[in-house]
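Team,

Forwarding the record for the chain on the shared tracking sheet. I've put the sequence and predicted structure together so nobody has to dig through attachments.
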Amino acid sequence: QEHLEQSGGGFVHPGGSLRLSCEAPGINFNGRDYYLIAWYRQAPGKERELVAEVSKWDTIQYSDSARGRFTISRDNAKYACSLQMNNLEPEDTAVYYCRLDIPDHTYWGQGTQVTVSS
């Protein structure tokens, strides 16, 4: 199964920043355009939840916890996106996944760990 490639993440102290990136270098979309790119996260013992999403028409949505601290951006030409995370809190600790939707398929990244701790 094809996966998106993620980079970034790691360990940071509270108040710090991290940047996550997501690309699709190994996927042949056969000219199909995507309509949504998003970031999700899953903390231990919790359900996977939406963090932020951006559509090809630049409609952006953030979760309540991400709004004002995180910024999602995209590169249409590269089927890529990034998530800039500032003022991180211990509650942001989770595995983060990127997601890309085309009309007949959803692609996921394999996840990257973000740990925020003092």
